[in-house]
Amino acid sequence: MSDLDFLKLIYELGGSLHNVSNGDIARKAHLSNASVTERTRSLAKNTELLSYTKYYGSKLTNKGIEVLNPYIQQQRLIEVWLVTDLEFSLESAHKESDILTNKVSETFIDKLNDRLNYPKFCPHGNIIPNNSPMIKSTQQTLIDDLSSDQKYIVQSFAEDSYVFSILETIDIKLQDTVKVLSYAEDNIIIFNFRTGNKQLLPKTLAEAIRIQKKSPVSID
Fold this sequence. Notes:
- The protein is an alpha+beta fold.
- The protein has helices at 3-12, 22-29, 33-46, 62-84, 90-100, 106-115, 161-167, 203-206, and strands at 50-53, 57-60, 140-141, 152-157, 177-183, 187-192, 197-202, 209-213.
- The longest helix has 23 residues, at 62-84.
């Protein structure tokens, strides 16, 4: 895995907003914790793109985010194109865009961006850099300590092929209104107001679903 792909992986895990643990990086990259620790320490020491803090993990620096943004923009624009024009699934679009990113010219991306009318979000709800303002704060997920009396809106999904494969079998979509009913060790149960049903979500999926509180509708 190249340094660029390694840093993109940290970006996808939220490394532009908060520290990402070596364990999370290792699981996503299919590497050992030891090799990830060595890699992150080396990048932090020899580049200005990443900071590393023992026991807390790694976070992209402002320069790292600036360097990565064009590549993240490429990948997410290609995903929009594959899903909207070619009807790829989220999982397939993510895999194909990962292959195509860095293989196309800036002219291609500029024309694609214009063709798609400068979309602000990719198909899994994350912002497209340079088309949309950067998110500045960490978002809540369905495994956070949520109120059982509060409704939440599904805002985005973490970028992970395994997560997208689970979404092929579980009917939960962006902008769904949900309420958390109960937590178990490996699963949570939610009520989805769009489907009108309870849904059992594995923890792996629940922690990849980013949400925000649903504001009450005022009636004048």
